[in-house]
């Protein structure tokens, strides 16, 4: 069962739960434009991808035990994923095995954390600020689906990064229209 809740800021590592004890309903996540589905068949994932006109995909494994370059390289990769960012297109993440946390910003800039595990699928809309990390188990295998030609470059949120801030304003405006 997926677990969604407000993130608690504290000194524990990013891979700790940071559970504020304040749950968030999947419907609230949907209001932010993020869709959660539990899908236990690859064929259904493929159908969804076709319906939504996804053209590209890759598989990613983040595993403390096997990551090329070892744990240091994995931690560097996790730092990239945990740096708040947006994608220019809608993207899907489907968990094949393991666990992880996706954090998305709500309209008040509070982090909403979703604990994802095997067969959980998230549709992240274009322009939502988010980040990802592993849980303390330090293992996930996921399918990443991209609408278009692979755009691996994510726009990071940096003060003064007007390009991404403009993108974000447009995104929230589009939710209310
Ligand atoms: C488990 S998917 C790897 C992380 C990723 O692709 C992403 O976009 C994080 O924000
Ligand atoms: Fe991302």
TrEMBL record:
Pathway where this protein functions: Amino-acid biosynthesis; L-methionine biosynthesis via salvage pathway; L-methionine from S-methyl-5-thio-alpha-D-ribose 1-phosphate: step 5/6
Species of origin: Pichia membranifaciens NRRL Y-2026
HAMAP family: Salvage_MtnD_euk
Binding residue positions for Fe(2+): 85, 87, 91, 130
Role played: Catalyzes 2 different reactions between oxygen and the acireductone 1,2-dihydroxy-3-keto-5-methylthiopentene (DHK-MTPene) depending upon the metal bound in the active site. Fe-containing acireductone dioxygenase (Fe-ARD) produces formate and 2-keto-4-methylthiobutyrate (KMTB), the alpha-ketoacid precursor of methionine in the methionine recycle pathway. Ni-containing acireductone dioxygenase (Ni-ARD) produces methylthiopropionate, carbon monoxide and formate, and does not lie on the methionine recycle pathway.
Name of the protein: Acireductone dioxygenase
Assigned protein family: Belongs to the acireductone dioxygenase (ARD) family.
Required co-factors: Fe(2+); Ni(2+)
GO biological process: L-methionine salvage from methylthioadenosine
GO CC terms of this entry: cytoplasm; nucleus
Cofactor annotation remark: Binds either 1 Fe or Ni cation per monomer. Iron-binding promotes an acireductone dioxygenase reaction producing 2-keto-4-methylthiobutyrate, while nickel-binding promotes an acireductone dioxygenase reaction producing 3-(methylsulfanyl)propanoate.
Catalytic activity: 1,2-dihydroxy-5-(methylsulfanyl)pent-1-en-3-one + O2 = 3-(methylsulfanyl)propanoate + CO + formate + 2 H(+); 1,2-dihydroxy-5-(methylsulfanyl)pent-1-en-3-one + O2 = 4-methylsulfanyl-2-oxobutanoate + formate + 2 H(+)
Database matches in InterPro entries: ARD, ARD_euk, RmlC-like_jellyroll, RmlC_Cupin_sf
SUPFAM superfamilies: RmlC-like cupins (SSF51182)
